[in-house]
Amino acid sequence: MIKRLCIFTTGFAHNRQGIIKYLEKILPGEVELFFFVSKECKGKYSSKRAKIIESKFNKYLCFFELRKFCRNNKIDRIMNVGSLPQEGFAMMLASMLSKTKFMCYLVINPFEFMSSKINKWSIKSFFQTILLYPFLLFPEKIFVCSKDITDICKKYAFFARNKISQLPGTIDTDLFSPKDKKNIRKKFGIPLNKKVIISVGRIEYSKGADLLFYLAEHNPEILFVLIGQLSKDYASKKKLKNIIFIERKSPQELSDYYNLADLCICPSRAEGFGLVPREAMSCGTPAIVSDVLSLRMIEPAIKVQLNSEKIEKEMNNFFNLSTKEKKELSIKSRKYIINESSYELCKNLYSSLLLN
Description:
The protein is an alpha/beta fold. It has helices spanning 14-26, 63-72, 86-95, 120-135, 147-156, 181-188, 209-218, 251-260, 275-282, 308-319, 323-341, 343-355, and strands at residues 4-9, 32-37, 51-54, 77-80, 101-106, 141-144, 164-166, 196-200, 223-227, 243-246, 263-266, 287-290, 302-304.
């Protein structure tokens, strides 16, 4: 079993903070845990156990310092928790001709370009995949967050098949848990009988922002809570009176917002793990998701094609359910997350793959 593990990233995201929190909780006490971040992340991450090392260099140059750190501290393994192939190349350069090995965690869907129309998002995804393909020869291990994406990786990266394993994302089912909707609605000043839909993540084309705005424009009686950075392409949508725009919330605050909503809609054109619908479902809030890689693996979620009218139909079907049927779907949703991706369920898998 390895004794010194370093997690590496060049950007901030709450899910990356969540991974550190999880590893601190489940890894054996004799394992020394380090968290190396580039200059862009200075002061953004916190830790109770892992030692945070903030590089003086940006994401393009920090591998020099990362290499020196790993050699001086005799790090056994490095693993990224952010974007590939960029973080992968940094780890490769940092560990080259040394005893430190590196592992790659594919937290995104590298095949996004296959499921999108030709646009700037699919073109970017295509070139990232072209760079990623030969790179997969070099890591000691390759982790993929979704089963169906894992299967595709093994098929196309056949030369690295034996290195590839599924390492699912995890959900803090204690934090993301059901709360009394009446109290939550009262806290935010929203009537209990108001229909509320939530969507979390970057508000851009790749995340289905155009589909969400169609729903809002055609259903003015429904309140939409959109949490995430708004793309300038949709700046004009701020005028819609039935949308609450919120740029960022902490995981603790997100739990309240998920509980505030009746339904979560995630119409992404591509996803990695599908954290948002799972967090919502863990709170007992049912989800509608697009029928794409990763998201279609969430069994109790309502799957729908990337079509605004079909999403609207499923949304209306949900609101037409009886109170009993909605409650049953809520219970089923949370139970599924507990049995699929809860902290307790995944701890042995994480320890085995990261340390053995």
